[in-house]
Amino acid sequence: MSRISTGLTSAWSHLLADWDRTLRSSGKPETTRYNYLLAVAQFARFLTDNAADCAAGPAAPAESTRAHIEEFQAWMIETRSASTALNKHKVLQQFFKWLAEDEQEIDRSPMERVKAPTTPTKLVPVMGDEDTKKILDTCNGKTFTDLRDQAIIRLYYGTGARLAEVANLTTDDLDMATDSVVYQGKGGKSRRVRFGPKTARALSRYLRARSRHRAADVPSLWLAARGAQPLQANGIKIMLKRRGKHAGVSGVHAHRWRHNYAHAWKLAGGDTGDLMLLLGWSTDAMARHYGASAAAERAQEVQLRMRIGENV
Questions:
Q1: How far apart are CA 208 and CA 142, in angstroms?
Q2: Superfamily assignment of 129-302 in CATH?
Q3: Which tens digit of pLDDT belongs to each residue from 105-149?
Q4: Which residues contact 265 (CB under 8 A, 6 or more apart)?
């Protein structure tokens, strides 16, 4: 909170602290709370920094207007992207709704007539087998880092988990007797997912190396190569980019394997409901979105199997 609130007026920082308390009491995970608070702090900072160029920056959240929010959204689109502006829009909706309904600091939300930014459909390319092999080949050594990174990559590749789900694993979440892992998903929902023999072998090799690490007693599954610290999600992001660069594969990030998992599942004729359970989705909208960039390939595979126009 102190870092997020740096440079804000007391009115903004106090309300942010109160909102954070509400978010914690409703069970919002830490990453969600951070993103929510950051968005509001960015809005408040924008009003202060651009007071001379736009309508006078409000001293307190209750003085925010539709014009302020629209200028902030336009700035986000120009300096970041439309999708980032849309995320901030959704957060500000929640913040001003809380300010009106829970705190009764305002009579009505200034977000009521603010249109959400439109975003172009962006298809995320799947991380196919060929590129995955190139990346895994960079982890063929016997060092602690090689064994750890291969286990991490195989979990993403073999289970389609989110970045944070793999990053936040503890040693208790692994069950090597049943070759399964328990992920803590969004909204505090947990699910058990099986993994294959190659992933199991990579994990087993890592666990043996981990048992000799100076931080072997740390509950976090993934450990930094040096020191006695766990490897955090940001460290995994950096590792994946580094491995991708070394392998000559661009745009490497965990979510591409999530898209690949959904694509491979659909290509094999897997049930959408089962896919939702495995990947931790509550609606089929995400199931339609993930793997969409490879939808044409799936359609062509089905066409060949059906042999339309080849029966006479």
A1: 12
A2: Intergrase catalytic core (1.10.443.10)
A3: 999 999 999 999 998 766 667 888 999 999 999 999 999 999 999
A4: 275, 278, 291
